[in-house]
Amino acid sequence: MSITRDDLADSLHRGMKLPKKQSKELVDKALELIKSTLASGEDAMISGFGKFEVWDKAEGNGRNPQTGEALTLRARRIVTFKPSGVLKRKLNGQS
User: Fold this and answer.
1) Residue among 95, 79, 75 at smallest CA distance from 87
2) How many CB atoms sit inside 10 A of residue 36's CB?
3) Through-space distance between the first and last CA atoms of the chain, rounded to whole angstroms
4) Measuring CA to CA, which residue among 40, 31, 32, 36 is closest to residue 8?
5) Residue 20 · residue 43 · CB < 8 Å
6) What φ, ψ does residue 81 adopt, rounded to 5°?
7) pLDDT at 94 (0 to 100)
8) HEC readout, the chain
């Protein structure tokens, strides 16, 4: 199951009895804060959930899987996610 922005906003609307418009604004603000933090090169940690980390990948060699043609992959930034211990325990049925 995918969770959309609307799903998050609906959950806030139902769980906290917030107006739908305000719920959507809160979700958008939270996601915008995470995006801008990552774009600035900083990591974004959400306690009890996990940490989004920005990594700089160096230029490297690759290949086109359809043609087998060798390619040079440009240097780029990527984002990885590391779950917190709390999330890991929940995923594994522990409390």
Assistant:
1) 95
2) 11
3) 23
4) 31
5) no
6) -125, 130
7) 86
8) CCCCHHHHHHHHHHHHCCCHHHHHHHHHHHHHHHHHHHHCCCCEEECCCEEEEEEEECCEEEECCCCCCEEEECCEEEEEEEECHHHHHHHCCCC
Place of tokens 């009895």: 17
Rg (CA), the chain: 18
* 64-79 per-position pLDDT tens digit: 999 999 999 999 999 9
- On the question of pLDDT at 6 being above 80, the answer is yes
Tokens 């984002």 sit at which residue?
A: 79
